[in-house]
Structures are given as structure tokens and as C-alpha cells.
Amino acid sequence: MDKPISLVFVGDDFVGKTSFVYSILNKQLQQQYVLGVYEQIASKCTINNKVISYNLVDTPVYEDYDKIKDLSSFKDNSIFIMCYAVNNSSSLFGLVQWTQQIRSQGVLGPLVLLGMKDDLKYDASSIVTQKQLQFVKDKIGAQLDLVCSTENKYNTHFVIDQTLKLARKQYQQ
């Protein structure tokens, strides 16, 4: 495959997008919060003895969904990782609006639901239920739903592997 796959992380503020990207690239936990900035970071991994090039794209958050960064450049070879915090159900439901904004830009890439902060799922009153997750998955048309915890490194590399496998299948690489 010549063109790298873009893994575009989208979702509300404080769900863990920037921490996830940082931990994958630096193999360690980010020690302090750094406001997400719109950037693409190139990386590679091997899946089934094949080297896959990909870009991790960390998107900044804006209070108004209409002001999301122009994502039309991600029409080809892109997977959108729709991030929410498992301990905050409103972050899950916010993905419906994020998806509408992405689709309004003509971007049709596959969607992956990613529940972040899995280590906090028992410490919250607003935990995401399986019923809520299925509703949003159906509503936005996500092809996968995964969970992870950057704090304890639970499933972080599995998320990348599964997302890249979906991309290979989607784009027949």
C-alpha cells in the first residue's frame, strides 16, 4: 500500500483522544493534559507480516460542532475513530452530532466507536450502558466498537490493530 491510512480521532473534549495518540507514539502515559492540536503523526506497524503505514490524526475540540476543522482532505483511506469516555454517556451521544458534521463535509470513511477511560467505568454515575452504545452505533453506522484505557494500556494496541484491519478490508489493500 502506497498511501498511508489516516486514523482520525474525533470526539468531545476530555475523553482521552490526545492521551491515546501520545501513548501509542511514545509508549508511555502523558503526564499532564495538553490541549489537542490538529496534527498528523506518521507511524507504522506490522499486521499479518505486512508493514502498514498510517497517520494518527488528533483533532482539536471546538465548543460548536459547526466549527470542526475541515476534514474533507480525509475522503480517501481514512477511518474515523469516534471517541467517548465510558464514564460519561453525554460524550457518547455527542458523537451523533460529530458524525453529522463529518458527513456534511462529504467524508464517507468508516467509523469506529472507541470507549476510552475503561479503567473508570466503575467510578461514575453516568456510565455508558450497552443499550446506549448499541443505539449510537446503529445511529451513526459504526462498523466496530472497541474499548480501551490509556491509563493502564488496556487494548490500546488492539484498537490500532483492529482499526487497521478494518481499513485494509475497506480499502482492499
From TrEMBL:
SUPFAM superfamilies, A to Z: P-loop containing nucleoside triphosphate hydrolases
Q: Which InterPro entries match?
A: P-loop_NTPase, Small_GTP-bd, Small_GTPase, Small_GTPase_Rho
Q: Which Pfam families match?
A: Ras
Gene Ontology molecular function: GTP binding; GTPase activity
A single BP term in Gene Ontology: small GTPase-mediated signal transduction
Q: Give the keywords, sorted.
A: GTP-binding, Nucleotide-binding
Top-level taxon: Eukaryota
Record-linked PANTHER family: RHO FAMILY GTPASE
Name recorded for this polypeptide: Rab-like protein
Species annotation? Hexamita inflata
Biological classification of the source = Eukaryota, Metamonada, Diplomonadida, Hexamitidae, Hexamitinae
